[in-house]
């Protein structure tokens, strides 16, 4: 929904007012950690219509701090559309005239799906730190159970950026018969030591906050806001390129005179503090820990003798891999590692390097070349269904 | 002192056992913040001998967490030499057979010089947060008073890496008649928005630690260890290149199986936690705040219509600027900005880009090409004195 529309008038390419729904999965889910969830809920939004043979479904996997609300608005007056609204809608790259799009809040999330801020039926208390740490494989399993519940045997495509792209890779490896196309955007085959270092500092900020209370902060009616704020501020540095920060905040770096105190002096400081504080209001610290650990643990080659090539030989999907030139969190070199392994594994892969400005966050931006590549790729996916 | 020497036997190229001394400056120092210190102490170490006309003195300026103990050992059994021992000594690049080297703990530091962890004579209490925030200009003024106290009218050279290099630049601009050569290593003409963002998060980690107590933690017999630890961990990410972290910790990234808890799993985590904890034992949180603010405030162009060229036209020194290829904190591009401005200002400058592996920390490493450039440059400086 563009900001230029008057309130209450939705643009023609919006999916419109959407409502989330809760899908109850009344089956046990065995997790990589060895524990089993007897049942779980996933909150989803869907856009478009599932066709008769359920062959037009697209799974959208979210990144670290994302959720199910990817497109549309929650009410006609809602001015803030979903996090990927620029990409999902009628006539947009993920075209809801042709596809049935499923967007979920991952297991362990904090927006309604079973996670640390929901009740553990066995104890009657909020899960908190008792909620198991998860892997990307666990998510794929849970998403497969969601697909079953929705009557979707095979995804036309799974699509995700960053941690979302990692879920897509894992889908292609773990359930090769259930995914026809894998769109892996701004991702990496596994984290670098520097990536893990950033995550570790974010976790230490949360874990060492006295108001974290070992993860039971709910019961103390507090939140570990200092730690979670620091974690988010730190994340933001990795989402933006040095050049983007310079462009955005550079002119503010000319101080007429220092204030000689710790108040905000530079715009970048106020930006980070604002981003950090806003995040505390909407996100759960235990979920943040779960998400960063899932990132650190992601390594699809682990089960295949540390060979990504061998891992990817399991896949049957065709791949679209997209990287952004200004991304230093998961740089184009990391995407090329994926592409190279796919080629070695004799898989079908298209690769696009998008010239970009902002950094890792570019995967959320409506960059024309990016949307063009993704849109054309998915148009062919849609055509396949028609001709099949 | 190399680790291969038996205890008690100093290598021939060591400056040997050194003792710090406290220089009392019994004169007022007017600071950029508008306040005046009526007097102050600086703790220094010196290596080599001042010659008769005091023309062979080199000032070593330290970086964020450095101190006066740059070379030698504190006792014959001390296995841990000063922070730049590989560069300072007889026959080393900063050759103590030819130069008299002065290394100080900066004003505001925490290793004996007047700073937040020393007593404010006006109140009889530790300064803590009442200690003024400082600028690089303030340090240059204080170092000039130190030079006076030591009978040094003109430095043969001032040398520093990172924040130390910024002090050297400021010396050349503010007191052009008192410095013949300026060696600016791994520095930048001012901080980027990303640099400031990292500093801001480090500060917020300290300021938001409940045990910071508004900077009066001394009086509560605690230290803001969580915040200071996070700050240091974060700093470390910026001192190492992504590739260096990968080389050092990469092989550890292959987990046989996740532990599914928040214990250390990856070597990079234990490295960062150790670095953070060790720092808490040796460094003061208020000093850390002062140092990061001095970095943020550094902008020698501010007094010259935001023109670095105009600022550098004040300089009379000849410059050696050294950058490291793997440094992403203050990348070679930042050093080239300095060089370009020096050239435009018609100043004499030599520039060396050192191929390196580690990142910003390379300015502390005995990289042969680096020590060769610095050593040859300084040998010419020494020859000048002889022929003068």
UniProtKB/TrEMBL annotation, chains A, B:
Organism of origin: Panacagrimonas perspica
Reaction catalysed by this enzyme:
L-homoserine + succinyl-CoA = O-succinyl-L-homoserine + CoA
Physiological role: Transfers a succinyl group from succinyl-CoA to L-homoserine, forming succinyl-L-homoserine.
Upper lineage ranks? Bacteria, Pseudomonadati, Pseudomonadota, Gammaproteobacteria, Nevskiales
This protein's UniProt keywords: Acyltransferase, Amino-acid biosynthesis, Cytoplasm, Methionine biosynthesis, Transferase
Which pathway does the protein contribute to? Amino-acid biosynthesis; L-methionine biosynthesis via de novo pathway; O-succinyl-L-homoserine from L-homoserine: step 1/1
Molecular-function annotations in GO: homoserine O-acetyltransferase activity; homoserine O-succinyltransferase activity
What residues does the AB hydrolase-1 domain cover?
A: 57-342
Enzyme class name: transferase
One GO BP on record is: methionine biosynthetic process
The positions annotated for binding substrate are 232, 361
Task: Write down what this protein is called.
Answer: Homoserine O-succinyltransferase
Q: Which family does it belong to?
A: Belongs to the AB hydrolase superfamily. MetX family.
Question: A single GO CC term, please?
Answer: cytoplasm
Site feature Important for acyl-CoA specificity: at which residues? 329
Where, per UniProt, does this protein localize? Cytoplasm
Q: Which EC numbers characterise this protein's activity in its record?
A: 2.3.1.46
So where's the catalytic machinery, residue-wise?
162, 327, 360
Per UniProt, subunit arrangement is:
Homodimer.
Domain of life from the UniProt record = Bacteria
Among InterPro entries, the record links this protein to: AB_hydrolase_1, AB_hydrolase_fold, HAT_MetX-like
